[in-house]
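Milestone 3.1: sequence recovery, worked example.
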């Protein structure tokens, strides 16, 4: 079993009033993937995904319990780590006014260089299926570098 938990710390403009900033915790995103234990050139897994309504401000989360499905796959040819994870969740409980139908896709590309250095890109692409069609997608791109140290 592979698990992935995201507990976001958020600082953003107040989208409801347009004044100041809102700072706090967002909703916790949890995924659990059942994966074959036998070695393979591709590691993959499928399982449940949940969003827990833990946001500390109404602008940082919809106050809905949500659940759905998630899948992950990755390969490590040579110096590369390449893969992707996707999920879709739907709200099933909570006091918020808006329903949740939310898709997430994160691809990740990592190239390992000598001496622990690496190049990486792992943006998160989302679709809010409840939003108007011209405001549905958030598509990010980016990259970075780092060094692994002991």
């Amino acid at each position: 079993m592979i698990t992935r938990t995201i507990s976001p710390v958020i600082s953003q403009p107040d989208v409801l009033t347009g004044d100041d900033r809102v700072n706090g915790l967002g909703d916790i995103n949890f995924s659990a993937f059942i994966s074959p234990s036998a070695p393979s050139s591709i590691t993959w897994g499928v399982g449940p995904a949940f969003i827990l309504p833990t946001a500390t401000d109404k602008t940082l989360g919809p106050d809905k319990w949500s659940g759905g499905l998630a899948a992950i796959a990755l390969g490590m040819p040579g110096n590369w780590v390449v893969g992707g994870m996707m999920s879709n969740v739907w709200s099933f409980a909570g006091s918020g006014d808006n329903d949740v139908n939310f898709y997430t896709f994160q691809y990740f590309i990592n190239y390992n260089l000598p001496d622990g250095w690496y190049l990486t890109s792992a943006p998160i692409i989302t679709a809010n299926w409840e939003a108007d069609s011209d405001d549905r997608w958030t598509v990010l791109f980016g990259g970075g570098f780092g060094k692994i140290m002991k």
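Residues 2-105 form one domain. The chain has a mean pLDDT of 94.
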